[in-house]
Q: What sequence folds into this?
């Protein structure tokens, strides 16, 4: 027996209901069905002229998303101007009516299923490098990291910020040392599981990349020291890391760098402090980052697109 979820997946796949316009249609029609009941008459969902789907605007769509704690804008026009919205509406209404006839039209479950697709849509969009010559390189790096932090906040349980930071640092090290000299790993592969001493190991320097330093990190640092390695921490929370190092009694044996400064500083040096060199180096950094993501991660949304 086909489940509701399988039927929804099949419908969405067959009719390519994955873009923001199609998602808006699904949300608005499902909410209409919840409020007015099934079956739905598709003609009642058209505007007076018949050329657009009624209530398919930004405000109604955002109101639905707000019910699920989503504040990010799915579509500025709510999908109203998307080509094919009327056709998608008619197909989806027919699908809902068929589910109703089969006794499978659990509209709460259906609406939640589409909300999950919205989360996937937001998560699937690549990050964007906004290279603005008027801004500092540190501000440009900060913008990338803030994009990752925002996406992570919108998708609880994910580690976008830590993954982006790890691979940005890895890309910077590749530019500095040369490709092939540094081993890269998936951000989800824990050091303890892989047997690694750190995220990156260069000569006797064990580099740890973290968005939130904690006790486990400093246990690893102590292990590094016991092995004759020099621990180096790159983090978004430099002050916290230094305080923990003090508490552990190893503050004078561990180097701590603030992530934005660590990455931006080398971009200046690699670009020889020239304007053209900075922009070229920033783009080289992103190209190398994307290559690492392609090799180590399975989520294409971790990519960074270049541009101003």
A:
């Amino acid at each position: 027996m086909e489940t509701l979820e399988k039927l929804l997946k099949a419908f969405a796949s067959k009719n390519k209901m994955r873009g923001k316009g199609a998602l808006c249609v699904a949300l608005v029609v499902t909410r209409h069905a919840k409020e007015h009941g099934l079956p739905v008459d598709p003609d009642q969902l058209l505007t007076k002229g018949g050329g657009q789907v009624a209530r398919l605007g930004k405000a109604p769509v955002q109101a639905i998303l707000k019910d699920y704690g989503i504040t990010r804008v799915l579509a500025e026009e709510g999908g109203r101007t998307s080509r094919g919205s009327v056709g998608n509406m008619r197909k989806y209404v027919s699908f809902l009516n068929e589910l109703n006839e089969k006794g499978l039209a659990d509209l709460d479950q259906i609406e939640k299923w589409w909300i999950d697709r919205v989360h996937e849509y937001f998560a699937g969009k690549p990050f964007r490098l906004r290279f603005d010559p008027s801004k500092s390189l540190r501000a440009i790096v900060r913008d990338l990291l803030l994009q990752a932090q925002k996406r992570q906040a919108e998708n609880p349980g994910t580690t976008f910020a830590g993954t982006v930071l790890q691979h940005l640092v890895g890309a910077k090290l590749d530019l500095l040392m040369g490709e092939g000299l540094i081993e890269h790993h998936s951000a989800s592969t824990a050091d303890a599981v892989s047997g690694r001493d750190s995220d990156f190991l260069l000569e006797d320097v064990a580099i740890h990349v973290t968005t939130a330093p904690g006790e486990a990190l400093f246990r690893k640092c102590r292990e590094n020291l016991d092995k004759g390695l020099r621990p180096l921490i790159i983090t978004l929370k430099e002050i916290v890391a230094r305080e923990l190092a003090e508490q552990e009694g190893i503050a004078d044996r561990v180097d701590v760098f603030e992530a934005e400064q660590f990455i931006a500083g080398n971009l200046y040096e690699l670009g020889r402090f020239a304007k053209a060199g900075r922009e070229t180096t920033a783009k080289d950094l992103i190209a190398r980052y994307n290559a690492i993501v392609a090799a180590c991660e399975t989520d294409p949304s971790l990519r960074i697109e270049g541009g101003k």
User: Anything to note?
Assistant: The radius of gyration is 25 Å. The chain has two domains: 4-124, 127-305. Residues 275-296 form the longest helix (22 residues).
